[in-house]
Design a protein that fits this description.
The protein is an alpha/beta fold and 260 residues long. It has helices spanning 43-50, 73-79, 95-100, 115-127, 143-156, 173-189, 201-207, 225-228, 231-238; strands at residues 3-13, 18-28, 32-36, 58-63, 66-67, 80-83, 161-165, 193-197, 210-215, 218-223, 242-245, 254-257. The chain has a single domain, classed as P-loop containing nucleotide triphosphate hydrolases (Rossmann fold, 3-Layer(aba) Sandwich). The longest helix has 17 residues, at 173-189. The radius of gyration is 19 Å and the shape is globular. Bound molecules: adenosine-5'-triphosphate. Adenosine-5'-triphosphate (ATP) is lined by residues 14, 19, 37, 39-45.
């Protein structure tokens, strides 16, 4: 099976301080990967390098077997979609208009949207439970609703690879599960490769095929959830002691901090 994303020995810095150091990893097509790690460990920066928003100082990135430097942005947008935490919208667009923007890579200049565009946008909005919000201004909805709209826009791009930065950070528990279930369904049924940053270790363990654990700009561990999320790795990276509790229904143990 080929790789959706290959990151070869990349380094990145915003200034003097190195934020990514020698990151080397291959993500198989069709995998569901969660990137975990403490605040400031470089998760978002890595995603931004993978989606060409930032350029590594050294190293190479391949997406869909092509050198990222050689893929035009519009072409890349048909392969990879990104839902960022900090997607700012300064104009009074409706929620529907925002999601329709996801069809941009497929639209011809000065042509209005096709029936197919409308169909795909509707499906993306139904999947993310945002269809009922379609006529509202993007500024009139809650943070959690907005997060779902940004994901709907990414889905409207019909990507082979979906990058998500903290997609559930502002969602209530029901919508957290709904979004992760949707990602899982897209992953299993439509073979979309999912690469997401998350803070919730237990949800990451439950939904992901593989976990990438980052620490101080480096890869601490990459592999199956049960092999990465060990007591020792968590202690090393987060500096807290945890207990692993075996639950009947789940392959991966539940991780709880030990209170002092
Ligand atoms: N635009 C920027 N300019 C300068 N430094 C930055 C910038 N963005 C991030 N950094 C720094 O780079 C480091 C990594 O940040 P990054 O956002 O990638 O971490 P993260 O693991 O995603 O953190 P979090 O869990 O808090 O979202 C941090 O030390 C941060 O302060």
């Amino acid at each position: 099976m080929s790789n959706a994303v290959e990151v070869r020995n990349i380094y990145f810095s915003y200034g003097y301080e190195e934020v990514l150091k020698n990151i080397d990893l291959s993500i198989q097509e069709g995998a569901f990967i969660s990137i975990l790690g403490p605040n400031g460990s470089g998760k978002t920066t890595l995603l931004k390098n993978i989606c060409k928003l930032l350029k590594p100082l050294k190293g190479e990135i391949f997406v869909d077997d092509k050198d990222l430097n050689k893929i035009a942005f519009k072409e890349l947008a048909k392969i990879m979609a990104v839902a960022h935490q900090d997607s700012n919208v300064n104009f009074e667009f409706t929620v529907y208009d925002i999601v329709m923007m996801g069809r941009y890579p497929y639209q011809k200049r000065f042509k209005s949207e096709s029936e197919n565009d409308v169909k795909i946008v509707k499906r993306a909005m139904e999947n993310t439970e945002t269809w009922a919000l379609r006529e509202k201004s993007i500024h009139e909805i809650s943070g959690g609703e907005r997060q779902r709209v940004i994901i709907a826009r990414a889905l409207a791009q019909e990507p082979k690879i979906l990058l998500l930065d903290e997609p559930i950070s502002q969602l209530d528990i029901k919508h957290q599960i709904n979004i992760l279930n949707l990602c899982k369904r897209l992953n299993r049924e439509e073979k979309i490769t999912i690469i997401t940053t998350l803070h919730d270790i237990n949800l990451a363990a439950r939904y992901s095929d593989y976990i990438l654990l980052m620490n101080k700009g480096e890869i601490k561990a990459f592999g199956l959830p049960e092999s990465v999320l060990t007591k020792e790795n968590i202690q090393d990276v987060y500096g807290i002691e945890v207990k692993l509790i075996k639950l009947d229904d789940y392959k991966v143990p539940y991780i709880v901090p030990v209170s002092s």
